[in-house]
Amino acid sequence: MRRIYLDYNATTPIAPSVHEAMEPYLTEHFGNPSSSHVLGRITSEAIQEARGCVAGLIGADCDEIVFTSGGTESNNLALIGALWPDTLRTGSHLIISVFEHPAVEAPARFLKRQGIALTIVPCTEDGVVDPNEIRRAIRPETRLVSIMHANNEIGTIQPIRAISTICHERDILLHTDAAQSVGKIRVNVNELGVDLLSIAGHKLYAPKGVGALFVRRSVTLQPVLHGAGHERGLRPGTENVASLVGLGKAATLAARALETETERMAALRDRLLDLLKAEIGDQLTVNGFRSPRLPNTLSANFPSVAGAELLQRVPEICASTGSACHADQVSMSKTLTAIRLEPQQARGTVRLSLGAHTSVEDVDRTASLLLGAWQSLT
Fold first, then answer.
1. Which of 43, 54, 195, 236 is least enclosed, having the fewest CB within 10 Å?
2. Would the pLDDT of 120 be above 50?
């Protein structure tokens, strides 16, 4: 049985050329980058080259890239690093959205327990945070706003530039979790106007356990971890050289193929939707379809079935659902709840996220398998 992987929003495989680039730093080039001898210089130079590649992908300067262990650490460093000094004072305020990833929501709630006021703004039924909601939520004491760039479940792209304008009119920092968007669509920190931006390597064909945080040069952060002075003193610890090299190579690959891959992904996603709709019709609904979306993401609600049961019928397809069903009760994901999807629709939600290895044949086979499973259940 040949599996069809359609869960690229959860994680991506390591690209072959990324693996190849990493290999020498797992064996031959093993020096500590802090060492002054030749082996240390080789690894130190490799890290700086990788830093330049990541910076180039998002339009940043090299010294604005801080390497981390992944998206979660980047988000924690952004939120806690920006607001931790304010926990010693009263009145500071943080704004996030209702469907942020737990890697943003959890540190936000941690800060709330330390005395930072927290406001969680809603999104529309189309899966977008209205900039006016941010405007209304801002207080004189607001210090930071954190809104994801693209939603991991339904793929909706948030109006970060408009939110940035509102924030900067009031000298408020803006952070965006761009784990889902970097490598899939154009992401430029200056066009977005963000002060902080998080990247997760395993979402763009680099290894798991590596990521980066863009920190605009004018922003001061308090380190979350304490130790030696690596990464401008913001992220101590001997560097994971091979993975950083892998992230740099993945960033280079993404920059080269971005335009063509964006178009290819959108065409495949739309082909898949058309094939499903040809059989199911308008009963098949798409979450966030009226909003700008990631080109690779299709969050579809199959009528009259449970998404988990549907996928169980087609073990060839690796995909995700948006809800869990227990004893006739539907437990909806945070995002589906936030867009106010009806429980009966959410019951049948399946997220199909495409990637570099997805082919036309994969899409056609997926449609055939899903339709066969759906017909057998209805």
1. 236
2. yes
